[in-house]
Design brief:
single chain; alpha/beta; Rossmann fold; 9 helices; about 45% helix; disordered C terminus
Protein backbone atom coordinates (compact mmCIF):
# COMPACT_ATOMS: atom_id res chain seq x y z
CA UNK A 1 0.00 0.00 0.00
CA UNK A 2 1.26 3.48 -0.93
CA UNK A 3 0.70 6.09 1.79
CA UNK A 4 1.32 9.77 1.04
CA UNK A 5 2.95 11.25 4.15
CA UNK A 6 4.41 14.39 2.57
CA UNK A 7 4.84 17.98 3.57
CA UNK A 8 2.25 20.76 3.82
CA UNK A 9 1.78 22.78 0.62
CA UNK A 10 3.69 20.33 -1.53
CA UNK A 11 0.80 18.82 -3.47
CA UNK A 12 0.03 15.78 -1.33
CA UNK A 13 -3.74 15.90 -1.93
CA UNK A 14 -3.09 15.97 -5.69
CA UNK A 15 -0.48 13.21 -5.40
CA UNK A 16 -2.94 11.11 -3.39
CA UNK A 17 -5.51 11.34 -6.20
CA UNK A 18 -2.82 10.75 -8.83
CA UNK A 19 -1.76 7.52 -7.10
CA UNK A 20 -5.38 6.40 -6.68
CA UNK A 21 -5.80 6.85 -10.43
CA UNK A 22 -2.71 4.64 -10.98
CA UNK A 23 -3.02 1.98 -8.28
CA UNK A 24 -6.67 2.03 -7.19
CA UNK A 25 -8.38 3.41 -4.09
CA UNK A 26 -7.71 0.34 -1.93
CA UNK A 27 -3.96 0.57 -2.55
CA UNK A 28 -3.39 4.21 -1.58
CA UNK A 29 -3.72 6.16 1.67
CA UNK A 30 -2.81 9.63 2.93
CA UNK A 31 -1.56 10.75 6.31
CA UNK A 32 0.10 14.18 6.64
CA UNK A 33 2.43 13.21 9.44
CA UNK A 34 6.02 13.36 8.22
CA UNK A 35 6.79 16.37 10.44
CA UNK A 36 4.23 15.60 13.15
CA UNK A 37 5.24 14.87 16.71
CA UNK A 38 6.06 11.13 16.71
CA UNK A 39 5.01 10.96 13.06
CA UNK A 40 6.85 7.75 12.29
CA UNK A 41 5.33 5.97 15.30
CA UNK A 42 1.84 7.18 14.36
CA UNK A 43 2.40 5.98 10.81
CA UNK A 44 3.35 2.51 12.03
CA UNK A 45 0.30 2.34 14.33
CA UNK A 46 -2.06 3.34 11.51
CA UNK A 47 -0.51 1.61 8.52
CA UNK A 48 2.07 -0.93 9.77
CA UNK A 49 -0.09 -4.01 9.16
CA UNK A 50 -0.65 -3.03 5.50
CA UNK A 51 3.00 -3.35 4.34
CA UNK A 52 3.13 0.41 3.62
CA UNK A 53 5.35 2.29 1.21
CA UNK A 54 5.67 5.90 2.41
CA UNK A 55 5.35 8.36 -0.46
CA UNK A 56 6.97 11.74 0.11
CA UNK A 57 6.39 14.78 -2.07
CA UNK A 58 8.44 17.97 -1.89
CA UNK A 59 8.64 21.20 -3.82
CA UNK A 60 10.92 24.20 -3.97
CA UNK A 61 11.25 24.89 -0.21
CA UNK A 62 11.22 28.66 -0.67
CA UNK A 63 7.95 28.53 -2.61
CA UNK A 64 6.51 26.10 -0.04
CA UNK A 65 7.07 28.70 2.71
CA UNK A 66 5.39 31.43 0.65
CA UNK A 67 2.40 29.23 -0.19
CA UNK A 68 1.99 28.21 3.45
CA UNK A 69 2.11 31.85 4.55
CA UNK A 70 -0.93 32.55 2.38
CA UNK A 71 -2.70 29.26 2.97
CA UNK A 72 -2.69 29.76 6.75
CA UNK A 73 -3.82 33.36 6.41
CA UNK A 74 -0.74 34.86 8.02
CA UNK A 75 -0.58 37.43 5.22
CA UNK A 76 -3.48 39.14 7.06
CA UNK A 77 -1.88 38.78 10.51
CA UNK A 78 1.84 39.55 10.30
CA UNK A 79 4.66 40.47 7.95
CA UNK A 80 6.43 37.58 6.21
CA UNK A 81 9.65 38.40 8.13
CA UNK A 82 7.86 37.49 11.37
CA UNK A 83 6.11 34.44 9.93
CA UNK A 84 9.36 32.71 8.94
CA UNK A 85 10.62 33.05 12.51
CA UNK A 86 7.60 31.50 14.28
CA UNK A 87 8.69 28.82 16.75
CA UNK A 88 5.74 26.89 18.09
CA UNK A 89 4.04 23.55 18.06
CA UNK A 90 0.40 22.98 17.22
CA UNK A 91 -0.88 20.12 19.38
CA UNK A 92 -0.09 16.72 17.96
CA UNK A 93 0.50 18.16 14.49
CA UNK A 94 4.08 19.01 15.29
CA UNK A 95 6.50 21.61 14.08
CA UNK A 96 4.95 24.54 12.30
CA UNK A 97 8.00 26.75 11.77
CA UNK A 98 8.02 27.16 7.97
CA UNK A 99 11.80 27.16 7.72
CA UNK A 100 12.21 24.03 9.82
CA UNK A 101 9.55 22.15 7.86
CA UNK A 102 11.23 23.15 4.60
CA UNK A 103 14.44 21.45 5.75
CA UNK A 104 13.15 18.25 4.15
CA UNK A 105 16.19 16.14 4.95
CA UNK A 106 15.71 16.69 8.69
CA UNK A 107 12.24 15.11 8.54
CA UNK A 108 12.92 12.42 5.94
CA UNK A 109 15.96 10.81 7.54
CA UNK A 110 14.11 8.47 9.98
CA UNK A 111 11.65 7.46 7.26
CA UNK A 112 14.42 6.63 4.81
CA UNK A 113 16.29 4.61 7.43
CA UNK A 114 13.21 2.49 8.13
CA UNK A 115 11.35 2.27 4.78
CA UNK A 116 11.96 2.04 1.07
CA UNK A 117 10.24 5.38 0.42
CA UNK A 118 9.07 6.76 -2.89
CA UNK A 119 9.81 10.41 -3.68
CA UNK A 120 8.14 12.88 -5.97
CA UNK A 121 8.84 16.53 -6.67
CA UNK A 122 5.78 18.69 -7.31
CA UNK A 123 7.53 20.76 -9.98
CA UNK A 124 8.03 17.64 -12.13
CA UNK A 125 4.60 16.16 -11.48
CA UNK A 126 2.91 19.38 -12.61
CA UNK A 127 4.29 18.68 -16.10
CA UNK A 128 2.30 15.44 -16.32
CA UNK A 129 -1.10 16.14 -17.94
CA UNK A 130 -2.63 13.36 -15.79
CA UNK A 131 -1.54 14.97 -12.54
CA UNK A 132 -4.56 16.68 -10.89
CA UNK A 133 -4.25 20.08 -9.26
CA UNK A 134 -6.36 19.82 -6.11
CA UNK A 135 -6.55 21.72 -2.80
CA UNK A 136 -4.56 24.69 -3.99
CA UNK A 137 -4.19 27.81 -1.89
CA UNK A 138 -6.24 29.58 -4.57
CA UNK A 139 -9.14 27.18 -4.00
CA UNK A 140 -8.94 27.62 -0.23
CA UNK A 141 -8.43 31.38 0.00
CA UNK A 142 -10.40 32.34 -3.13
CA UNK A 143 -7.61 34.64 -4.27
CA UNK A 144 -4.35 33.93 -6.08
CA UNK A 145 -1.06 33.83 -4.23
CA UNK A 146 1.00 36.79 -5.47
CA UNK A 147 4.53 36.21 -6.76
CA UNK A 148 7.09 36.07 -3.99
CA UNK A 149 9.16 39.28 -3.82
CA UNK A 150 12.89 38.81 -4.42
CA UNK A 151 13.86 40.11 -0.95
CA UNK A 152 11.60 37.45 0.66
CA UNK A 153 13.16 34.77 -1.52
CA UNK A 154 16.61 35.86 -0.34
CA UNK A 155 15.50 35.98 3.32
CA UNK A 156 13.97 32.49 3.10
CA UNK A 157 17.05 31.08 1.39
CA UNK A 158 19.31 32.59 4.08
CA UNK A 159 17.18 31.16 6.91
CA UNK A 160 17.02 27.73 5.23
CA UNK A 161 20.82 27.66 4.93
CA UNK A 162 21.13 28.54 8.63
CA UNK A 163 18.57 25.84 9.55
CA UNK A 164 20.42 23.18 7.58
CA UNK A 165 23.78 24.13 9.15
CA UNK A 166 22.25 24.15 12.65
CA UNK A 167 20.79 20.67 12.24
CA UNK A 168 23.87 19.32 10.45
CA UNK A 169 21.64 17.53 7.96
CA UNK A 170 23.02 16.95 4.46
CA UNK A 171 20.12 17.96 2.27
CA UNK A 172 19.73 15.07 -0.20
CA UNK A 173 22.71 12.83 0.52
CA UNK A 174 20.63 9.76 1.33
CA UNK A 175 18.27 9.83 -1.65
CA UNK A 176 20.37 7.61 -3.97
CA UNK A 177 19.52 4.54 -1.87
CA UNK A 178 15.78 5.08 -2.19
CA UNK A 179 13.15 4.52 -4.83
CA UNK A 180 12.33 7.64 -6.81
CA UNK A 181 8.77 7.89 -8.04
CA UNK A 182 8.54 8.13 -11.80
CA UNK A 183 6.06 10.00 -13.92
Amino acid sequence: MHVVVGFSKCGQVSLHQYLINRYGKNNVGRDEIIHAYNGLEKFEERWGDKNPIPVIITRDPIQRCWSWYYYLGYDNQMPYEEFVKIKEYKGSYGEINPISISNYAKWMRPWIKKYNCMFYMLDYLKKDPLFPHLNSTLDFRKKPVPPMPKHYQELTKKLLCEEIKTNKEPSWSYLPNTVLGKI
